Amino acid sequence: MRKKSNKPLQTSKVTKLIVKEETIIMDFLLQKMGGMSRTSIKSLLSHNQVTVNDKTVKRFDHQLKANDIVIISNKRKDPELKNPLLNIIFEDDDLIVVEKKEGLLTVTTGSGIDTTAFSILKEHVQQKSPENKIFTVHRLDKWTSGILIFAKNADAQHTLRDHWHNIVTKRTYIALVEGVVKTKKGKISSWLTENEKTFVIYSSPVDNGGKLAITNYKLLETFEDSSLLEIELETGRKNQIRVHMKDIGHPIVGDKKYGAKTTIDRLALHAQVLEFYHPTTNKLIHFESPIPKEFYKTPKLVSE
Length: 304
What we know:
Elements: E1 9-10, E2 14-18, E3 23-24, H1 25-32, H2 38-46, E4 50-52, E5 55-56, E6 63-64, E7 69-73, E8 86-91, E9 95-100, H3 117-126, E10 135-136, E11 145-151, H4 154-162, H5 164-167, E12 168-178, E13 185-194, E14 201-204, E15 211-222, E16 226-233, H6 240-247, E17 262-263, E18 269-277, E19 284-288, E20 300-301
Parallel strand pairs: 11-18
Antiparallel strand pairs: 1-2, 2-7, 3-6, 4-5, 4-7, 8-9, 9-11, 10-11, 12-16, 12-18, 13-14, 13-15, 15-16, 17-20, 18-19
């Protein structure tokens, strides 16, 4: 019969230890983990890498009993993001792709609102290391929901920003607009300028020195007094979809700024699909977010 070894059982993922006598976990790990410092052991505990009898232990003075099974994960678990306004759908060393809820700013506007998608993600990555950073790639309006990309390093940010039109192969929005749209599909082109005092965007059918904006739309479904559209952008101007829907006489439901008379208690605009080449691997990746259920509600008149 082979003689049992007292050495820890090593695998590619975990270290398994069996407790022989009562002690606290700090003393136990100092003895068993090959000269690790107290600081290193506290780091293991704080990053949920230690379990006792399959339960995560975080306190360094946790009491151990004989025959307890202690397992140390060799790979640190990344902290989970728990926020009702933001959900991570993809994360690697270069990118974080999220679903943003309506009502959350992408970045601060200097209005004193501290909670933004940027601030939430910055706090998230710095839980793993205080030196980690987040970089903005593009934005969604505060009241627009859907898919949003952030970079985790400056190289990824610059690649995405500098080559956005070549890297992004599909960018689709869903909008619930007022009225019954008669045409099954259409293309809107105009030049957009912004009023510096009111921040309202104005559209011109001729070149007036503004920025050219091109929007394609396809009719998905019609209701009694509204229509559901799929919208693809050829350009990405501020408030572009909102302005262009007003241009064709079908403002987005809930968009009082651009002429809407009805609401579903939110702006009915959702960034549904984003498909692009990864800035480091160059692989084509596709993300899709479901159409919000509220878009199938009957809009109600906005109270004055």
